[in-house]
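Fold it.
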Amino acid sequence: MGIANRWLILATGLFAQAATCALLYGVPFLVPAMRTADHLSLAQAGTVVAAPTFGLLATLIAWGAAADRWGEKLVMVIGLAGCGLAVLAAVFLANGLAAFAVLLGISGAFGSSVNAASGRVVMGWFAKHERGVAMGVRQMAQPLGVAIAALALPLLAGATDYRPALLLPAGLCLLAAVLVLVLVVDPPRPAGKAAQRAPSPYREPDLWRVHAASALLVVPQFAISVFSLEYLVSQRHWAAAGAGVFLALIQLAGATGRLGAGWWSDRVGSRLRPMRLLAVASAAVMLLAALGNASWPWLVVLAIALGAVITVADNGLGFTSTAELAGPSWTGRALGMQNTAQNIAAAATPPLLGLVIGASNYSVAFAVVAIFPLLATGVVPVRAETRRATATAALRPSSAEPRTR
């Protein structure tokens, strides 16, 4: 396949992932309108917000297995179409909050198909030396989707009915389904019998360690993303609008950080060495925030700005390493497992960290968060990656030929 077609497929996957992220991570931007229109408690609104995530967690591995067996294109088209239709049903047919939340959960269950399948497409069409950049582009989808939701959904939500705002992510998902159907081509894969005979990569601990390290590194990422606005407004007395603009700008910087980390990994020929260094940097950022809150508050602002870039930069590295360690026959399932581990950590971080803040203060909470990336530095299987690279190089026939004059 030509370079233009490969990058067009990648762009389509980026759009598809951003469309689902606008829903999965966009519902929180409707919470003020929800509470006003339906007189919801914070707990009730939180249940609605969590519904798409619960659906996503329940189906990630299953969609990955489906992509391994039947191909990425089919899985993404079905998932995107189902996600968009479920959101339309939530907007127009849901009678009551419970039905609304259930349909959002179903939309998340369909939308999770893109997480595993779009990553599998990247691994299939891009060579090893360019996968870091390609996966970095794909991983930019989350901040782009969140940015779309942050800018549009509050404006589209009415004072008495917030549901029509969700027509935007529904429409984006349906449009993405059409684009995937027309533009995406499944990469070559092993023949059916060869794929069935491929041994499970989970017999070795390497993939488990990548999943564990990635989950540990989600904790500082969500500590920054979830609590930054609250900290700046309640502790530093910033205006909410000004804090929102600041956080939107640094989130865009975080998107470029993912791309930069992928480029770095391609240049050095390793995913896990940069990942371990980024884990050290994440711990340093959280300790800087803890120190700043106890002494010079401007250090916390600096730590938030740095953390918005550093704490998300490893995401693409973890995904790329997962797919490379899994092999083509297991890529979808392995990426589903990777997503599941990260989303469990993401769901657990806000309530648990909120308890720590309530029982102590932000300095203690930031210091506690720093422990998780420090643990990740010991879990990342850098030596295993080096051993595999050495073994692969030894098995590869030499391409060197004598020069003639």
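The radius of gyration is 21 Å.
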